[in-house]
């Protein structure tokens, strides 16, 4: 498995935990939560292909949610967020990062504009405590109401080409008018259209009771439950980063090739000076895609070598791609080796396998735009 997990401890449990166990899921520790890795004895592939061809249902209740409201809400979000949400239309969603002063990544996140000076921030499960402390620390001097709502919200993600039809017919949640990266509320329920799989898809945020009801309706309707395993293979194939692998306190958005989400023409944000300098000078290391000329599977942490056998980087995520039938990986390498077509090698245990630098998106996205 490429996704890093730990033996299950008595971690937090989402509101859907008992349902995972009832479905026979393999449970693992991830981000401080007991989470389903997969449900299929046949492995990840059936769940992965259900999302690519039909629809898959994910429990993402482990994600964190923070609300920012008040007179200075927009100014505060602008201060902590690399993307530019100034004068954003209500209902628009933005992807970006929170960075330290040195440009390292605190977390990558989604910012939802719910109303004027009313924002909904979705953060990574493993980073909830760290992010919340950092947000509070940087809230001084802003007239805002900052609330950590992570324990209140449950969340499911329905992903795949049939997701819109299922949302409307099974859950009775009208969503066809939602454009990509937009959000709306239906009563107390938040419905968005983003996705982390490369396919069309929706997220539903609501009370634990409501999320449990939605899960039951979808499972009863025959929708495939999907675990963390295929969530990782799906996002990886379309080049989407995972915090802790492709982004970290030591990997900046510029190094990760995510400069389009860093708006250096903004007046200010935390880390701007360091990121501007790195963009101007060029980062010392860059995130690249690598295709192996073999079926061996590169994993996180495996060394990347130049053709002389010298270490020049390491793998961040690697799989034998389920949708593309190739052994591929993302890797952080010295910038001089980042050009497309560059010949490299990857050390897998005691053997070395040849490969070449390719685009990080190994499979074409199928979002509805």
Automatic annotation (TrEMBL):
Gene: gcvT
Catalysed reactions, as listed in the record: N(6)-[(R)-S(8)-aminomethyldihydrolipoyl]-L-lysyl-[protein] + (6S)-5,6,7,8-tetrahydrofolate = N(6)-[(R)-dihydrolipoyl]-L-lysyl-[protein] + (6R)-5,10-methylene-5,6,7,8-tetrahydrofolate + NH4(+)
Pfam families the record matches: GCV_T, GCV_T_C
UniProt entry keywords in alphabetical sequence: Aminotransferase, Membrane, Transferase, Transmembrane, Transmembrane helix
Swiss-Prot/TrEMBL GO biological process terms: glycine decarboxylation via glycine cleavage system
Name listed for the protein in its UniProt record: Aminomethyltransferase
Bilayer-spanning residue ranges: 21-42
Domain GCVT N-terminal: 16-266
Binding site for substrate: 203
